[in-house]
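I keep forgetting this: the sequence line spells out the residues, with the fold written below as integer tokens. I include a record here:
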Amino acid sequence: MSTEESITSNDSSIQELVAKARVAQSSYESFKQDQVDAIVRDIGKYVYDNAEMLARMAVDETEMGSYDDKVLKNKGKARVIWNNLKDKKSRGVIGEDSDANLVMVAKPMGVVAAVTPVTNPIVTPMCNGMFALKTGNAVVFAPHPKAQKCTEHLTSEFMKIVKSHGGPENLIQVVTKGSVEKTQELMQSADVVVATGGGAMVKSAYSSGKPSFGVGAGNVPVIIDRNIDLQEAVEKIVDGASFDHGIICSHEQFVIAPEEDYDQTVETFTNTGKVWFTDDKTQIQTLREVVFPDGHLNKDVVGRSASEVGKMAGIDVPESARLILLPADGSGTEDILAKEKLCPVIAIVPYSNFDDAVGMAKANLLVEGAGHSAALHSNNDDHIEQAGLELPISRLVVNQPSSTTAGGSLTNGFAPTTTLGCGSWGGNSISENLDYKHLMNVSRIGKVIADKKVPTDEEIWA
């Protein structure tokens, strides 16, 4: 019997999984930085080297997303996450602050419960597994039922890597025959929770009684400023919004364009050959009802191609179209198209001045997506700062495709991740990208600061 078969057939209880994880973690805790890094590197390299096979597995099992884009995602995320992790200290003494006379020592948290979504069944387990093992922890994956096979396969392959480096059995495990109850029990039994998934699951994680890192809803507005290269901006928006059939939470959802350039902007979108546009009110309404029946996102459109979404609406959208672009009646509560769609359907509206544009973006975020991300194409530093100051977001993605760079890239400073914190706006504990540092405790050794001048009361209160 293969390792993968044994994982599938052994329906261990949650308590058994956690008990085995604790034994494994206790052994793994003694591993040095170079030993840990060798394992973490090879986990990322496995996904990178097998990107095509894993992409096919993900599309076949989940029936969501684009095979070609998932190949790019598997390679890209593996590359950027390892590049960020490889030189970071995470075991033993990790740093000193000579001015404060402090020495920092990294300690693991223990057992990480990693709840993973159907939308990213390969790169999210990879990312969470790399972060957990980088910091000396064990990890137990709780996959979405429609991504069970993918997660079991990864668990098996990752454990082969762990054992090839002398690591302990059961350092990486997966919940089989999963259920909401099992996932809740896991979250309550582990030492720390990383929950990437729907709002209900994230809320459950924060109710588990354990330190938790979750994500809020995405709904990225993208502002096109004046005096930019419109062609370049539109191409980046199309690349971002259409990537993996719009399944990424950080993908552009709502284009806000200068009113005098509105028609030219629409034409620039359609001239890419990748965008289908209609201003027919009947077709727009039909698509509204398909994407948001009864005012709620239709789960059947999530991760489907533009052509497939069109067919659901009885509209002939060509196979060549990667994106459907629709005029919206307004922002915020004025049109349901202002909400997160998780499919290759985006909306567009005109704005009169930049204050108006920021106001529309904010209105959308306050309906859905507060704390997540916004995008801006601009060469105006004042406008960039204004958007960063006024919008309730954890990240403003400037002059980049949002979906493929908000989670970190080789050309920006966001921490590479698959879990994007949304701060208190989104009910999250962090307003930054989840990183390995969030999965480790740090002990601080404090010594007297020699020759430290102690201020008088008069100086303190001056």
User: Anything to note?
Assistant: The chain has two domains: 3-215+431-445, 220-406.
